[in-house]
Write a structure and sequence with these properties.
globular; twelve-stranded antiparallel β-sheet; 13-stranded mixed β-sheet; 12 helices; alpha+beta; Anthranilate synthase
Length: about 475
């Protein structure tokens, strides 16, 4: 049984950015508890009209792990490395994402009984983590992973609430709050020694031209093709520093850092909510359709009008929104599904997107993983028809997505959840940063324009005040 200790402090900067407060706490936790941070480092910040919060955590007190071996999926709940519960499920060869989430939906019921009963964790306990995008399902070995940190801090505008599941000193936490800086910035610039595009522009355009010729004229025939830029570093930077660099422009809806076992870190400034769940109420906000942005007001307005009147971008967006409406019907009360917004504009500064907002009520026999089984992968990162899009991605895409275009966020023991779609995301090691972007391809797409669109989407990492090319 775990002893749960909580300490609540007033947020010392209630008028500031809760994401930056969370980043400062994550930096302090990583510095003060390097061994715990080597097990797990997590930072997840969400900004919304009705409020903002961030969660920072280190150490792996409990962890839900997955392992795929051939046609078998193993799901395991561990406590500091010791197995508490393990179940193996046969995979039937259907869509891998649907099967993984479907089995996870069953597994977490039993895990919650152990965590809330035997270990007496409160229902509000968050499991931070995410899942990989299975563009190559035969090669996927670890589909999803979620962690309950040993030390975590939940930051709102009003308070910073620390939860300790280990034996860390109370005095350390008190000291951390008294030393919390108001302004947080990267401690070192991102010094780039070299760059490589995968694929190169010519190869990307060639592959896209070949694929576009195979698309039908049907409005729902779409596929998302992604590429990457590898940056070779002169010196290492921390994952939180990289996040602060990428987040130096307009605030994104989500900012996050995830790293397990001192391995590669995933850093993102995603603008897209995959799903938010509070009680039975769920919201999805698909983004599809893109134009570049500008700091100049007249140019920004011109691009906005182009986006609102571009047939290709509207077609791409409507395809994604209709797909969500169809998929939600599988797990939600049919009469509850409402499209609250259609073709709104979200301006990120470097790009603008068309956005819809859809709300619904989840059926009482379903949890958040049933919901993910129904809605993932969405057309915004995959395409439609789903099975055909998977074949096209495997044939024409030249990268390994891993967590990119998967999801990052949390779910709680009482089944609330918030997940960002993992776009505007980079993978980093000590000497390399891989930056990813994709675009939705339909029959009317122009391959070179899609190259430019993906370049614009990478700007938070490739073109910010802290990035220096030698």
């Amino acid at each position: 049984m775990n002893t749960v200790r909580q300490f609540t402090f007033k947020n010392p900067h209630p008028d500031g950015d809760t994401g930056m407060v969370g980043a400062a706490i994550a930096q302090w936790l990583e510095s003060r508890y390097p061994q715990a941070a080597a097990e797990f480092l997590g930072l997840f910040a969400h900004t919304a009209d009705d409020g903002a919060y961030s969660i920072a955590g280190v150490g792996s007190e409990f962890q839900v792990e997955s392992r795929k071996q051939g046609d078998t999926l193993h799901l395991c709940l561990k406590h500091r490395g010791s197995v508490l519960r393990e179940v193996s499920y046969a995979l039937a060869g259907r869509d891998l994402h649907e099967e993984v989430f479907g089995h996870a939906a069953h597994f977490v019921y039993g895990a919650r009984v152990l965590l809330m009963g035997t270990h007496q964790l409160p229902p509000s306990t968050m499991l931070l983590g995410g899942w990989r995008c299975g563009t190559h399902p035969d090669e996927m070995q670890e589909p999803l992973i979620f962690t309950i940190p040993r030390i975590a801090c939940h930051v709102t505008r009003e308070a910073c609430v620390f939860t300790l599941l280990g034996d860390e000193s109370d005095a350390d936490i008190i000291q951390a709050m008294s030393d919390l800086p108001r302004e947080v910035s990267p401690s070192t610039p991102l010094k780039i020694a070299g760059r490589r595009d995968i694929p190169e522009c010519r190869d990307y355009i060639g592959a896209l031209s070949e694929m576009i010729a195979s698309l039908s004229q049907e409005a729902n025939d779409k596929v998302v093709i992604c590429r990457e830029v590898r940056l070779f570093l002169q010196s290492a930077v921390s994952p939180v520093d990289l996040l602060l660099m990428a987040a130096s422009g307009k605030p994104a809806k989500y900012r996050y850092v995830f790293r397990w076992l001192d391995g590669e870190a995933w850093v993102g400034v995603s603008p897209e909510m995959l799903v938010s769940k509070q009680g039975a109420n769920i919201v999805v906000e698909p983004l599809a359709g893109t134009r570049k942005g500008s700091d100049a007001k007249d140019k920004s307005e011109r691009y906005r009008q182009e986006l609102l009147n571009d047939g290709k971008e509207i077609e791409e967006h409507e395809t994604a929104a209709r797909m969500f409406l169809d998929m939600l019907g599988q797990v939600c009360e049919p009469a509850s599904i409402q499209q609250l917004e259609s073709r709104g504009i979200i301006d990120l500064g470097y790009v603008q997107h068309l956005k819809s907002k859809i709300a619904a009520t989840l059926r009482p026999d379903c949890n958040v993983f049933h919901l993910l089984a129904a809605i993932y992968p969405p057309a915004t990162i995959w395409g439609k028809p789903v099975a055909l899009s998977g074949e096209r991605i495997r044939r024409h895409e030249h990268i390994e997505r891993d967590f990119f275009t998967g999801g990052f966020g949390f779910f709680t023991l009482n089944d609330d959840a918030n997940f960002a779609l993992a776009i505007r995301t980079a993978r980093m090691t000590h000497n390399e940063v891989r930056v990813y972007a994709g675009s939705g391809i339909v029959r009317r797409s122009d391959p070179y324009r899609e190259w430019l669109e993906t370049s614009n989407k990478m700007k938070p990492f490739l073109d910010n005040p802290y990035t220096v090319y030698s």
